[in-house]
Design goal:
Elements (H helix, E strand, L loop, with lengths): L3 E3 L6 H12 L2 E3 L1 E2 L4 E2 L2 E2 L7 E2 L5 H10 L3 E6 L6 H13 L3 E5 L5 H11 L4 E6 L8 H13 L16 H11 L7 E12 L5 H5 L2 E11 L1 H10 L8 H12 L7 H12 L7 E8 L8 E8 L11
Parallel strand pairs: 1-2, 1-9, 3-6, 7-8, 7-9
Antiparallel strand pairs: 4-5, 10-11, 11-12, 12-13
Organism: Candidatus Methylacidiphilum infernorum
Pathway: Cofactor biosynthesis; tetrahydrofolate biosynthesis; 2-amino-4-hydroxy-6-hydroxymethyl-7,8-dihydropteridine diphosphate from 7,8-dihydroneopterin triphosphate: step 3/4
Keywords: Folate biosynthesis, Lyase
């Protein structure tokens, strides 16, 4: 189930989670303060973290909670304070699943397994105490993850999980958690393009106008970063989208708007910030019909050449 571990890179629980992910070959990431700050100095470059525009620990805490499916807070003491308490509060405010596990909690591993499966968590944010506050938290967190998650990394192990009803919850939850939070949308309405398209040779001989509308899904963190920096390089350039679509549409004649729609989707999904998109292609083929439209929705990770006709 777990395909990525996220943390802020602080000493203690944060570093334990990242090191565990690296050791297990699991993707890792997350947000860290500007300048890669931690109590031990600059966070080592081996940790693939992105800097927030602020040096505030609170900002990176909030962003990691928001960008994950759920948060695991690990401490030695049963009482949450400071940054760990803030993490829990952010999870509550964002409506995100959150579990606090401490050294004295009975059946810790089972509680973590139940938490992961029942919430269908794929991207797990791990936070907790820093090493200077609770000496030994690194070792405790690392062992806890190793005992709680390792078997669940194999897909077939899910169906051997002893809790009743979780298979159904997982199947329902995976679709709901395709985006750990609802994506933001860049909408382009009624882009008019001239292209040669039509089922007959006569239609393809002369250029005609079609209209395209695009909903391009991007992560909320992309929009937040652009808001903080006010820099076009940190978001999706819709002028570039317009150029790519126009160039592709005019590149060759086509018989079907289905072909054009799939080619546009495949091209735009190559852009690193695009999570998915919805395309509406509208054609005006008949005098007595206002228009004919095709709407498709595609997501990253599904190359068009892997979609085979039934």
């Amino acid at each position: 189930m777990i395909r990525k571990i996220v943390s802020g890179g602080q000493t203690g629980a944060d570093r334990a989670a990242l090191d565990w992910a690296i050791a297990k070959g699991i993707a890792h990431g997350g947000w860290c303060p500007k300048g890669r700050l931690s109590e031990a100095g600059v966070i080592p470059s081996k940790y693939q973290l992105c800097e927030t525009p602020s040096s505030s620990y609170t900002t990176r805490t909030a962003w990691n909670v928001w960008d994950s499916d759920g948060t695991l807070i690990v401490t030695l003491d049963p009482t949450l304070t400071e940054g760990s308490l803030a993490t829990q509060k952010f999870a509550e405010n964002f409506g995100k699943p959150c579990l606090h596990v401490h050294e004295k909690l009975p059946e810790k591993e089972l509680k973590i397994k139940d938490f992961l499966f029942s919430n269908a968590i794929e991207i797990l944010n791990v936070g907790g105490s820093r090493e200077s506050k609770e000496k030994g938290i690194y070792e405790f967190c690392y062992r806890l993850l190793d005992r709680s998650i390792e078997k669940e990394m194999l897909p077939e192990s899910f169906f051997q999980y002893p809790y009743h009803g979780l298979v159904k919850a997982f199947k329902q939850g995976r679709r709901e958690n395709r985006f750990s939070s609802s994506p933001d949308v860049i909408h382009i309405e009624d882009l008019t393009i001239e292209t040669c398209i039509g089922a007959t040779e006569e239609e393809r001989r002369n250029k005609q106008q079609i209209r395209l509308s695009l909903d391009i899904y991007v992560a909320p963190s992309t929009i937040r970063k652009a808001w903080m920096t006010d820099n076009l390089a940190d978001t999706l350039d819709y002028a570039l989208i317009k150029e790519k679509v126009e160039a592709l549409a005019s590149s060759k004649p086509r018989k079907l708007i289905e072909t054009l729609a799939e080619e546009i989707a495949e091209e735009l999904l190559k852009l690193p910030l695009v999570l998915g998109l919805k395309i509406r292609v509208t054609k005006f083929p008949f005098p007595n019909v206002g228009s004919v439209s095709l709407i498709i929705e595609r997501f990253e990770g599904t190359p068009m050449n892997q979609i085979k006709p039934s």
